[in-house]
Write a structure and sequence with these properties.
single chain; 10 strands; 25% strand; globular; binds adenosine-5'-triphosphate; binds magnesium ion
Amino acid sequence: MDAADPNLQVAAVAARPVKLKLTNVSKTYLNETQAVAAVQPVNTEIRDGEFVVFFGPSGCGKSTLLNIIAGFEDVTEGEITLDGVPVEGPHHDRLMLFQEHGLFPWLNVIENVMFGLKRQFRFKPKARREHARQFLQMVHLEEFEKAAIHELSGGMKQRVALARALAPDPKVLLVDEPFPALDALTRAKLYGDIQEIHQRTRKTIILVTHDPHEAACLGDRVLVFSGRPGRVKADITIDLPRPREINNPAVAECAAGIMAQLEASDE
Ligand SMILES: Nc1ncnc2c1ncn2[C@@H]1O[C@H](COP(=O)(O)OP(=O)(O)OP(=O)(O)O)[C@@H](O)[C@H]1O
Ligand SMILES: [Mg+2]
């Protein structure tokens, strides 16, 4: 594939099989005292290898929808299928990369990456280590495999978490605002890394953000959420060549377009 031709990239994504299908998925949280409607019915298809961004302001149900896809929350109505099979509960075919990285401080770097491989019986202990090492290389941390977690910077921790989420080879990687606590330079580097990893692994990725530049930089497609309860207000294909830099003027232009869709009136 010619990486410089965005139309080829868009066409290639459209030709791939559907990985995740959301049909009329809605969510109302039922607490003891009240019902909180969080997500209005969402219908969308996400294709194999697609990088989809859920974008929108605070409280419009982005994390709720991601948690439903992860299986941490039940749907109130509707259905989600993965490769045509209904999703029920958490499974390591859908792994979540959390904002707080969630690393185990009592394990060193490579042990953290190996942790998720324990359930996979195809790996003997030595093979587990070798496999984990490959993913540390992918995030450029191979020299830190024996380091303790507290010795790492915020960006390095987020990289270890990325390696740990990818090592078990999930079908879908779910990412909920992973970069807010990082400085601009570290974030820019991670944007490069995550795009490189996406190109190499062809993983289906869904990333949640309320930063339109981040959405334009990373997404093949951006679903714009708005309102409370949230709904999908726009579905935007980003046909810019990769890798994209966060400060690129074309990315800024797309980000402005995403904001315009968010702010557009419904009339
Ligand atoms: N466990 C819960 N119980 C009750 N209400 C909840 C729960 N989790 C979220 N909500 C409500 O659902 C709505 C959507 O919340 P959600 O966290 O999905 O939004 P978000 O788009 O991820 O926001 P942010 O950008 O601030 O993370 C909000 O009104 C929130 O108060
Ligand atoms: Mg959220």
